[in-house]
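Reviewer 2 asked us to include a model.

Predict the structure of this chain.
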Amino acid sequence: MADAIDELREWLNENWNPDLTVAQWWERLGLAGWSAPSLPENAYGKGLARNDAVRVAETISEHGALPAPGGLGLLLAAPTIAKHGTQQQIDRYVRDIVIGRQAWCQLFSEPAAGSDLAGLQSRAVQDGDEWIVDGQKVWTSGGQYADLGMLIARTDSEAPKHQGISYFAIDMHQRGIEIRPLKEMTGRALFNEVFMTEARTTTDAMIGDQNNGWAVANSTLGFERAGLGSGGGHSVTTAALPGTVAGHLDRRAGDFVQNRRPSGGGARFRGASRMLIDLAKSTGAADQPTVRQDLMRLHTIEEIGRMNTLRLKALRAKGDDIAGFGNIGKLSMSEMVRLQRDLGLRIIGANGMLHAYDSAGKLKLDEATGQPFNAIVTEMALFAQAPPIYGGTDQVQRNIIGERVLGLPKDPGFDRTMPFSELPKNV
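Predicted model (structure tokens):
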């Protein structure tokens, strides 16, 4: 790994220029293999372990360069296509992901198919070399900025529900797709609902085999849980957004370097114990034994996640693995955010009842309380309800661990053998 970091530092010295546009810089970074170094070399990566890829991202940030494009394209679509797609699809889709040209969203969950994702009812009907898609998706992160979507749709309603699903890339800019942002109680709109009415995709945009989309989707979910989970590692990103919608590609790369923030999803919560420890000291809450105990508990969960990641790296180097690692990490992340919520609100006390929903309000609140960390604590508290749900609920993670890792019996039912068209539907 040291050789790779030395190579990267030398490359950065020769190639980073803040006066490049975002598009120009991301093209250099991506085609050199540094945007997604954990991808295989045939998919514009370097085949590094996940932990080493995190170190690459940290090195880029430490150098003062604009980090790699963030978002679900790099986190989910690229590794899924690298695993299940053809080389032609890798060159068509992954290249544009690593250079930031295309932003992606995930079209999985539906109003009646959340925890029971395989019960999805969006359908794709073949029309020559095209597929006509109708249905509704919900909780679509970043849909309003996406150029392409990872779509799973039912292509055979006479097959059992897990066997009649196909996985497509779909153009989000077409006439048959409507995106409606969903405002959360944090005041943000990270999620969307998406309506598809005679939208179209193509046969050559199908990732994996027809009616084998459930296997491909499970790979995506595995990458998602690994990325969201405690100890999953994180990269630093910036306010620069990939894709054609945000309008950042033609702007100066150096203008985004100072706007660093943690990457999305669970990464924003990792390392929060340090901030809460400092906050507890400044408010005097650190004198309370139960606060100190819970701060140590939070730090311990973070360290266990980090050490498990190192353990996984060592095992994979020997050709071994940790069964259910992503699911365990996702459950640990849920525990972390609940503890951060409760602990943070205990530390700031009555100020936890105050929250601002825009920049002007935050400035007034900081002035009134004299504590700029209050807004961070209250936003973490409001958002803490989401991680135990998105990416697969805690209950789903426990079921997966029980059935696939511990070998416990599955729930009784006919859904794995009965045609989907004959199964009772949620309405």
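Confidence is low (pLDDT under 50) at residues 259-268. Residues 289-317 form the longest helix (29 residues). We have added this to the supplementary material.
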